[in-house]
Amino acid sequence: MLMRTDPFRELDRLTSQVFGNPGTWSRPTSMPMDAYRAGDEFVVCFDLPGLTADAIELDVERNVLTVKAERRPPHGGEDVEMQVSERPLGVFSRQLFLGDGLDTEHIHADYEAGVLTLRIPVAEQAKPRRIEIAGKDEPKQLGA
Predict the structure, then answer these.
(1) Which residues are bridge partners to 68 per DSSP?
(2) How far is the C-alpha of 77 from the C-alpha of 71, rounded, in Å?
(3) Can you list the positions of beta strands (E) in 3-135?
(4) Does residue 32 contact residue 16 with C-beta atoms inside 8 Å?
(5) Which Gene3D superfamilies match (predicted)?
(6) Once rounded to an integer, what is the mean pLDDT over residues 81-103?
(7) Cross-strand partners of 20
């Protein structure tokens, strides 16, 4: 019910890790995520450490949710010489194809401790409901 993802995204992510290629706007790097259902909502968590909330773009068009973010090198003066640089830089992106049973009008997003958490409620029409059956208390007799 939640989503489908691009099956080649994981291969792209592994390739960029091995070869150290930073993502670009035309070819972004994938970001790791977890997704689970909690009651009447789906929760999706993206790992985006070292960013500020304003460096993250979140868009929904029809049933496609797109998350984009960019991590740039730290700004330093002319006298700054980088000693170790292991955190990946560049553009990160992930698209999720949300199912029709989700309420894309009421997505809630929080960014804390390097994790972007999205809460996507299940649409009312997709929730299970009990249907009452009307009937008479007296059984009908045949031939009456």
Answers:
(1) 57, 93
(2) 18
(3) 3-4, 33-38, 41-47, 56-61, 64-71, 90-98, 108-112, 115-121
(4) no
(5) 2.60.40.790
(6) 84
(7) none
- Strand pairing class (56-61; 115-121): unpaired
Q: Is the pLDDT of residue 140 over 70?
A: no
- Band (pLDDT 50/70/90 cuts) for residue 30 is confident
pLDDT greater at residue 35 or residue 131: 35
CA distances from 9 to 14, 52, 71, 93 (A): 9, 24, 19, 10
Residue from 72, 124, 135 nearest 100 by CA: 124
Q: What residue type is assigned to position 86 of the chain?
A: E
Q: Is the Cβ–Cβ distance between 1 and 126 less than 8 Å?
A: yes
